[in-house]
Design goal:
mainly alpha; 67% helix; membrane; transmembrane helix; transmembrane; rod-shaped; 157 residues
Length: 157
């Protein structure tokens, strides 16, 4: 009887070990896939923002009379150059996020220039309207819902 109990415990231990190994392998694969998707998303966003900045720099005036607007234009061009150079060599998610930041700062500087010149501001916001994932929009902000939410309505969010 003792050997049957020992065999059962050993079998249970082996099955448990196999389950834990299988779970660890699945967790590792999931983690690798998540990192890969984050990197791809960061690269896509960096490329989209840089492309938008490139198009906005192309339509910007060559020089402006206002010194503050001129300085903002120079900063935007410098950020555009930095984003372009970094985009050619970037390999990690953090590098792509930095490129996105350069492009957003460049767009901000172009908007500063436009405001100083009395023109309407250009594109801005968290997601460029010309990115690959933005085609399914229906002209509404994704954060606006038609249905009220909250504790009184029974809808948590």
């Amino acid at each position: 009887m003792e050997s049957a109990i020992e065999v059962a415990i050993a079998a249970f231990g082996a099955v448990l070990a196999l389950v834990l190994i299988f779970a660890a392998v699945l967790g590792l694969r999931s983690s690798i896939e998540t990192r890969r998707r984050r990197k791809a998303r960061a690269k896509e966003e960096a490329e989209a923002w840089t492309k938008l900045l490139t198009s906005q720099i192309a339509i910007a005036p060559v020089q402006v009379a206002d010194p503050e607007a001129g300085a903002a234009l120079v900063r935007a061009r410098k950020l555009h150059h930095n984003a372009g150079v970094a985009l050619k060599t970037a390999k990690k998610t953090k590098q792509f996020e930095r490129i996105r930041t350069y492009a957003l700062a460049g767009l901000h500087n172009l908007n500063v220039m436009r405001r100083r010149l009395g023109k309407a501001p250009g594109p801005q916001g968290p997601m460029p309207f010309n990115s690959p994932g933005a085609g399914a929009r229906n002209g509404r902000d994704d954060n606006i819902r038609d249905v009220p939410t909250g504790p009184a309505t029974g809808l948590p969010f």
